[in-house]
Amino acid sequence: MILDQIESARKELHQMIHIHESRVAHEEVIEMSQYLDKLLVEYMRNSKGEESDEGQ
Known about the structure:
Radius of gyration: 14 Å
Mean pLDDT: 87
Low-confidence stretches: none
Distance between the termini: 25 Å
Shape: elongated
Number of helices: 2
Order of helices and strands: HH
Structural class: mainly alpha
Largest sheet: none
């Protein structure tokens, strides 16, 4: 489920930031952040579609 993927990516990103001593410009941190962004966009798009269907 998308929410599980989001939560997993969020936790992994948090751990990466801790491991890389809060260097958010580290390549791995940026890649994970971009992946999390994509998941969030996908979730938002799917949520909007569900909201539109509910009103009909």
